[in-house]
Write a structure and sequence with these properties.
The protein is α/β, with parallel strands linked by helices and about 450 residues long. About 40% of the residues lie in helices and about 20% in strands. The two termini are about 45 Å apart.
């Protein structure tokens, strides 16, 4: 069984509620929307990501004979519900914002309209996919903003929370603007450019450091990027310089060196000088080692001679905000607007649209969240992507999504491009939506 494709990758209560709905004949059209309630501390925006995986999940939703037999043996569900699950397919409609679109609290980025048991059944996996990739893409975009055009590489697989997380983090970070990843499967699955150097173990396995460098160059003549901080960083840089003529004679060029520890800015300056004086001015310097957007900002502002950066744990786990306060809530059932009134978790009722407005120079100015039948002149963010369970268009390639994300980030006002919030983005709730909420409250 592949856990990432199993329909049983869900919460028990989704199955329990679906059976209860069926027993009561509650199979009318339900409208659920996915949104995030609030920004994590020190954040200014979200980057929507994960729609392609949600579309794949919904398109292929079905239970195997093995899964149905296991549910039967569990004794939790009746034969009528098991028969329903045997034929379960997603037949609903999906509206969503394009991946890479910036969004803000209380703005739905995905809406599912389907028979109530179906729309309820898919809740957990839909949230799982959108929460994770949106979380990572939003974190990665912050590094992209402060890197000021310098290439960033995903080095996060080894500390990702599981195989799927490592793979999808590579996708989400590339969508957000990273140059590539060290995760090989992401190269095969998504066409993401691959980058890699060597580990300290390779150097330690050799009795002589310069011999390790030479052996690696022989094995990877087109990708000679040498890790030089295993013992003494500056001494290793001099060894690279001394080795370079021998490699050149064999038609091999030193592409770069990697720094992974210590004062990266100071080491980079010393190493840059050694390389330049040794005739390796073309060799670039890659920095890694527990980097996040704050350390990146400091290194960039220090004008350290670093050409590219590898970012791992902090980005892949979104260490400062490892989850989003996201929700997938029922907004309408059988034509009746629904609203949650729980303290601190109230929702705006009904199916909604989000309209975006920009300033004269193309910067984001404000958004309006309103009812679906309140047509406004701004840019409508939600678009129909699935109709009656069928995808209307093929998913854009990651290159196209990266361009869209870059264009979105370029529209951010300067106040929202900083790592510390200066002002909150203006999200307005329309009079029509406020009136609907008041009407629902009166009925309650």
């Amino acid at each position: 069984m592949n856990p990432s494709t199993s329909a049983l990758l869900t919460d028990l209560y989704e199955l329990a509620m679906a059976q209860a709905y069926l027993e009561q004949g509650m199979t009318g059209p339900a409208v659920f929307e996915f949104f995030v309630r609030k920004l994590p501390p020190h954040r200014n925006f979200f980057v929507a990501a994960g729609l392609e995986q949600v579309s794949d999940y919904l398109s292929n939703l079905r239970l195997t004979e093995e899964e149905l037999a296991w549910l039967d043996r569990s004794g939790r569900f009746n034969s009528g519900f098991l028969h329903y699950l045997e034929a379960l397919r997603f037949t609903g409609d999906v509206d969503a914002v394009p991946e890479g679109t910036l969004f803000f609290p209380h703005e739905p980025i995905l809406r599912i309209i389907a028979p109530l048991p179906q729309a309820q059944f898919v809740e957990s996996r839909v949230m799982n996919l959108l929460n994770f990739q949106t979380m990572v893409a939003s974190k990665a975009a912050r590094s992209v903003l402060v890197a000021a055009g310098q290439p960033l590489i995903d080095f996060g697989l080894r500390r990702a929370h599981g195989a799927e997380a490592g793979l999808l983090a590579a996708r989400a970070s590339y969508l957000a603007g990273f140059a590539g990843t060290a995760t090989v499967l992401a190269g095969m699955a998504y066409g993401i450019p691959l980058y890699g150097t060597m580990a300290h173990a390779f150097v330690q396995a050799h009795e002589d450091e310069i011999l390790a460098f030479e052996h690696f160059a022989q094995a990877q003549p087109e990708n000679v990027v040498i890790l030089i901080d295993t013992y003494n960083t500056e001494a290793a840089a001099r060894k690279v310089v001394s080795l370079a003529p021998r490699l050149t004679a064999k038609g091999v060029s030193v592409k770069g060196v990697r720094l992974d520890s210590g004062d990266l800015a100071d080491h980079a300056r010393r190493v840059r000088r050694i390389l330049n004086e040794g005739g390796l001015s073309h060799a670039h310097i890659l920095a890694s080692g527990n980097l996040d957007e704050y350390r990146l900002r400091d290194l960039v502002q220090s004008r350290a001679p670093i050409d590219s950066y590898a970012v791992g744990t902090a980005m892949t786990t979104s260490s400062d905000a490892p989850s989003l306060d996201c929700a997938y809530k029922l907004q309408e059932y059988a034509g009746r607007p629904c609203r949650k009134r729980s303290e601190g978790k109230a929702t705006w009722p009904g199916r909604k649209h989000v309209y975006r407005y920009c300033t004269g120079d193309g910067r984001l100015d404000h958004d309006i969240v309103t009812t679906h039948n309140d047509r406004l002149p701004g840019e409508s963010l939600l678009r129909l992507v699935m109709k009656e369970g069928v995808c209307l268009t093929s998913s854009p390639g990651l290159s196209e999504l990266r361009r869209h994300t870059a264009a979105q980030l370029a529209q951010l006002p300067e106040s929202l491009q900083t790592l510390e919030p200066l002002t909150a983005y203006d999200v307005r709730i329309s009079p029509a939506l406020q009136s609907l909420a008041q009407a629902v409250d009166r009925n309650l």
